[in-house]
Amino acid sequence: MSPRWEWRTLTERSDDAERRFETYPQSAVRESDEQYLLSLDREVSAKIRDGLMDVKVLDRRRDDGLEQWRPIMKAEFPISADQAATLLEALGAGPPPAGRATFTLDELLSDVIGPNPRLRAVAVHKLREHTTIAGAMAERSTLTVDGSASRTIAVEEEDPDLVMAAAGEVGIAGRTNVAVPRVLAALAGFGAQRFAVIDVGTNSVKFHVGERAADATWRTIADRAEVTRLGEGLAEHGRFGDAPIERTVAAIAGMVDEARAQDVAAIAAVGTAGMRQAANSAAFVDAVRARTGIEVEVISGADEARLAYRALRAGLPLGSGPLVAFDSGGGSSQFTFARGEQVEEQFSLDVGAVNVTERYGLAGAVDDATLDAALDGLRGELARVADRGRPDTVVGMGGTITNLVAVQHELAAYDPDVVHGATLTRAEVDRQVELYRSRSADERRGIRGLQPNRAEVILGGACIVRTALELLGAEALLVNDRGLRYGLLAERFSS
Asked: How confident is the model at residue 310 (pLDDT cuts 50, 70, 90)?
């Protein structure tokens, strides 16, 4: 029983790796019902198929993610006490009950696995399609647990170079390598943990609860935002007002209560541009701590841009050419200039929907001269993004942009599946700029798709988006609904 190197990736029916896989002739198709013994403490593949106990342990994981698995046992039931001890050692559990010479499968499950909360037996139905790719064994598998299914493509061989060549040929080499036990643990919800993040912005507070499965993938449990206008009056007074502080602290307290009701393992809270600017940010932090026990960390503009870009790369299929991503917030806008995964420059500008609205008087209906003055002023404030060459892709995120898309599609209820990945053209932004310019805040609240609490600041935000597209020489942007909070979740809680 020789160790084998393996690369396995989660796939979907429609993705390119599956289309490539189907170009290779199948050598066999097999279906089976199996049981896997999962452990929270060890990397081990322990399965029962056709009356055999088959155990492999993870020997090595290279820096590129390639894994080598070593077989340590294949035995028929009933297994001996020594074999049971070998199995349990591999699973990271204690010795088997004394006084038995052998264990049937039922005895192993009921007397050894069942009572141990760190172990679980999972029934799995497998459909496996086998082929050969670049000289390596390959299979496409559908793994079903309690009606939930995942699809994977895997290549394995004793020679790691063969495995990586095959993985590259079928198009899975750049993806996360995920072993079968981790896939099954995710399907079974075994070892999953929940975490919450709170993003305190100048205009809104965003809240996200994510569940991290054993295979390191994430599932959204809760995701919402409340417009609290913490930065109301900040541009004029340089401080947060008492009323904005109170309503923002109340919103955060509700989010913390919800997170704790979801039994999260930890909560991370960060504050962005408004909290960097306000003279009394420390008083706000103290108020949140006294009410909730949570510490709000004020992050830099560079950190804000970095976290937003991390969320962006994970959330959208993007090419390797020049890309500009910008996050238009209430108190600032973050810009990232990149080429594929390589970030070339990131910076934050103190230009946000709230301060632009207050600076240029855009909270209600305005005449053409007022609008032109605002756009002229923004060209100067955003001049740093100009004259850099036209990017292949512009990606926008943040509450202003997602609201513009919601209005474009006349969404009575916000639907992230419609917004995420949508295209927002400069012509549509121009249309909406005129829509808001000609209406009072109360009249704007009647526009289908617009969050009522954004009525005062939506024109200022739309002007920022319009000017950024103009200076970048772009006619449209791709919309990302997975903002800073997703990057924060991944950075703080992915391991």
From this structure: confident
